[in-house]
Amino acid sequence: MSRLRNIIRVADDFISLLFPRVCQGCGTILVRNEEVICLGCLADMAYTNYHLEPANALEKELWGRCYVERAAAMCFYRRGSRIQKIIHRLKYHGVRNIGEYMGHMYGRKLAGSEFVGDIDLVIPVPLHHSKIRKRGFNQSELIAGGLAGELNLPLEAGLLKRVARSATQTRRSRVERWENVEGIFSVSRPELLEGRHILLVDDVITTGSTVESCVNCLKTIDGVRVTVLALASAVMSYFTLPGFFVI
Questions:
Q1: Which of 68, 92, 225, 238 ranks highest by number of CB atoms within 10 Å?
Q2: 10: Cβ–Cβ under 8 A, 6 or more apart, which residues?
Q3: pLDDT, average across residues 228-238
Q4: How far apart are CA 229 and CA 201, in angstroms?
Q5: CA torsion sign, 38 to 29 to 138 to 208?
Q6: pTM confidence score
């Protein structure tokens, strides 16, 4: 058995020499036992630990706009940050394995915590079908798939739908972003969600307008509770982090 493992290791090293695997965060060549993202990039991310902090800054951002049980994001988000580059590679360069990898990674952090204690199912924030045709995938669904697999929860990607296409949110004000996504989501077969606790998953939360619209749509169903989760959030705690501005 040890001889077989050595053969596999040598073969893996040879393949890596011919077709080097690179980190999706910094572009350096991955070494053995590194996958998708190098250890240096993983260590360089600014983790929020919001799942351990009730009434965290992200939850407070959503208070009065939509009713959520809890809200958390894995990392703080800003332009030029490591997580921003990784998510950009996922969304605009089509590196799909980033989504599932990051979902599994976050799922391992959340597993066994009170944050996900009574979640019933996972639902990704949907994209309009025209955008899926263009991009080929929904990045939030890939992330949600990794989370669902790690947390041993069912993934329901077809119940929450985006029924109208919204314009890009880039360079829009907070009010314009909210108006841009108001009323563009619907739920098919709402009876399947009655009384359920839903984990709603997005890639990035900036102003929270998209999540707000999704939550308000889901909350029209009897007995539904919603917890929100994202890989990254621009909403930060009220203290200064190295290299970050305070919001």
A1: 68
A2: none
A3: 85
A4: 5
A5: positive
A6: 0.84
Q: Is there a contact between 46 and 38 (Cβ–Cβ < 8 Å)?
A: no
The average pLDDT across 165-176 equals 55
pLDDT mean over 38-65: 95
Pair 25, 90: CB distance under 8 Å: no
Checking if the pLDDT of 151 tops 80, the result is yes
Name the residue with tokens 């915590």.
Answer: 113
Question: Do the beta carbons of residue 205 and residue 233 sit within 8 Å?
Answer: yes
Residue with more model confidence, 14 or 98: 98
Name the nearest CA neighbour of 95 among 145, 146, 39, 25.
25
Q: Identify the helix (H) or strand (E) that includes residue 231.
A: strand 225-233
State the average pLDDT for the chain. 86
Residues 34, 43: Cα–Cα separation, whole Å: 13
Helices (DSSP H) in 19-56: which residue ranges?
Answer: 39-44
Cross-strand bridge partners of residue 44: none
Q: Counting Cβ atoms within 10 Å, is residue 161 exposed (0-12), middle (13-18) or buried (19+)?
A: middle
Give the strand pairing for 160-162 and 225-233.
unpaired
CA distance 63 to 208: 11
| Residues across the chain | 247
